Amino acid sequence: MALFTYSRLSHLLTVSIYKPSVSRTGSGIKHGAACCVLLKRCQRSVDSKALQERQRQQMARGLPKQKPITGVKQVIVVASGKGGVGKSTTAVNLALGLMANDPSKSVGLLDADVFGPSIPKLMNLKGNPELSDNNCMIPLTNYGVPCMSMGFLVEDVAPIVWRGLMVMSAIEKLLRQVDWGSLDYLVVDMPPGTGDVQLSITQNIPIAGAVIVSTPQDIALLDARRGAEMFKKVNVPVLGLVQNMSVFQCPKCNHQTHIFGSDGARQLADTLGVTFLGDIPLHINIRETSDRGQPVVVSSPDSPEAAAYRKVASAVVQRLQQVSS
User: Fold this and answer.
1) Which residues of 268-290 are buried (b: 16+ CB within 10 A; e: fewer)?
2) How far apart are CA 41 and CA 115, in angstroms?
């Protein structure tokens, strides 16, 4: 099989960006201009509510139609309002926790953070994905979880210097040109923030629900709230909030310290009217196993830290059942 490399992807993205689009033909431009003229003429003859409804319908026609990912039953996005709150570590251990709770379920992991991919390191994976007979990328697999990431296509220290259009095209290929096989869940590690990538993903594929990760710190909670509100605006169910780094327990004296505050995410969940999915402690075992590419759920399955992630995974499944019913 052929290998899918960064240079090949860059070439495909450049070609796709500058490839003539049907929607930009002369007739399309003329049609768009005619609609604008017609809309201006109608503004004087219709009331405000009718005009707003007309604009809403035109906006809806302009959005891409959501199309399921082949072979994937449910997509779960793991997001955060800002970086540095442990979102990727949570996404990895959530995927492994889903499998640990029910080994009959198949789970995949997609790294949608184009500029800062973390999944290759966290899952101890290296190499370029091979191409299937129909030119789809074949995910790399470890711990029974197929994974796809931009990190598989670039060197570890190589920067990805792309403008918005190329980023959007890359996301499209990660969504549509990966052979996932058959999956019960696809966990998507989203980039931090509420920008183009988040909107592109939510508009292109049906999402079963979003998990918001935050520390209890006030400054992190502000951005977590923005993230939750964004998903509500684009009609993606918010499954709930995960409070990461909730408490530090001294390994010598077992004294507990709330370094980033206490119960901030729980209180935010109550304010937003969403479910609180659980606490993840600030523990050296989580950090060390993540750095080694051996997530705590598989490397220390009997530890309290692994139990915390499995509890969150169980709460996510319960919320998915509530949302779909």
Assistant:
1) bbeebebbbbbbbbbbebbeebb
2) 45
pTM, 2 dp:
0.80
Cα distances (Å, whole numbers) of residue 9 to 40, 166, 178: 43, 10, 13
Say what the pLDDT of residue 84 is. Answer: 82
Say if CB 108 and CB 219 are below 8 A apart. Answer: no
Contact 81, 214 (CB under 8 A): yes
Residue 176 neighbours by CB distance under 10 Å = 13
The span from the CA of 215 to the CA of 280, in Å, is: 9
Backbone angles phi, psi at 65, to 5 degrees: -80, 135
State which amino acid sits at residue 277: L
Low-confidence ranges of the chain (pLDDT < 50): 21-26, 28-29, 59
Question: DSSP labels for 255-280?
Answer: -EE-TT-SSHHHHHHHHHT--EEEEE
